[in-house]
């Protein structure tokens, strides 16, 4: 049976109660968030920026962005109201700079060209229509803006076992895209300079970085370039 938004809403509604205490906060989410923040900082420096975090959950990442990058104005969007509600204390504490919105990744409730960065950390495999979600991420980026999308790396045996076997068994028919499939999705959505980087560890993940199409990018192209699954293996980073 195909994974759908009703399943996702029910699953994350149940998970919202323990989400902030999950072992994944240490095992996967923390390392993913640090990787994203390093890339945003390396690209944007101390310039004022606007960031949209798609699949923002309870606001853990939004809070970390504001701590590390105080010049950033952050918007978060999540399909599941229970996740946003569980993060109410964070939204209140960061009310002047972080703005949560309930919405669908396939129909983002923001104007075209609104953001310098779009981030998406470890939720893309839950999106039933991944190509439509990627197109929406492209739409809301400024020309030359940057997408930073992280999901589980399933192209090596350990990652395949974790994500295609264990996670699928627990969460249903979710889909962790291969590195090749990510490139196809982002190319079709209109992104340029697609780059990928593997981060090793107990829960390996793949960072996809891409620039919203325009003749002259607003920021320089990513410094890492992997164009095939085989080359992804050789560029792995612990």
Automatic annotation (TrEMBL):
Molecular function terms from GO: methyltransferase activity
Record carries keyword Transferase: yes
GO biological process: methylation
CDD domains the record matches: AdoMet_MTases
A Pfam family annotated for this UniProt entry: Methyltransf_25
Keywords of this entry: Methyltransferase, Transferase
Domain Methyltransferase: 51-145
The enzyme's E.C. designation: 2.1.1.-
Gene3D superfamilies, sorted: Vaccinia Virus protein VP39
SUPFAM superfamilies: S-adenosyl-L-methionine-dependent methyltransferases
PANTHER family the UniProt entry points to: 2-METHOXY-6-POLYPRENYL-1,4-BENZOQUINOL METHYLASE, MITOCHONDRIAL, METHYLTRANSFERASE
Listed name of the protein: Class I SAM-dependent methyltransferase
């Amino acid at each position: 049976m195909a994974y759908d938004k009703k399943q996702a809403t029910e699953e994350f509604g149940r998970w919202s109660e323990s989400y902030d205490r999950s072992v994944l906060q240490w095992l996967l989410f923390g390392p993913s968030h640090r990787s994203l923040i390093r890339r945003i900082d390396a690209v944007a420096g101390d310039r004022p920026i606007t960031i949209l975090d798609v699949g923002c959950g309870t606001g853990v990442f939004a809070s970390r962005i504001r701590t590390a990058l105080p010049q950033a104005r952050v918007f978060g969007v999540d399909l599941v109201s229970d996740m946003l509600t569980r993060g109410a204390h964070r939204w209140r504490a960061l009310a002047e700079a972080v703005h949560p919105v309930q919405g669908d990744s396939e129909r983002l409730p923001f104007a075209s060209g609104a953001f310098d960065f779009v981030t998406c950390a470890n939720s893309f495999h839950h999106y039933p229509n991944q190509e439509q979600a990627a197109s929406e991420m492209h739409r809301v980026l400024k020309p030359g803006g940057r997408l930073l999308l992280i999901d589980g790396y399933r192209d090596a045996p350990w990652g395949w076992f974790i994500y295609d076997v264990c996670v699928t068994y627990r969460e249903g028919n979710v889909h962790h895209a291969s590195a090749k499939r990510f490139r196809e999705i982002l190319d079709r959505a209109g992104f340029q300079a697609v780059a990928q980087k593997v981060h090793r560890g107990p829960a390996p993940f793949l960072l996809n970085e891409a620039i919203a199409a325009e003749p002259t990018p607003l920021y320089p192209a990513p410094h890492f370039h992997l164009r095939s699954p085989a080359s992804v293996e050789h560029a792995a980073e612990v």
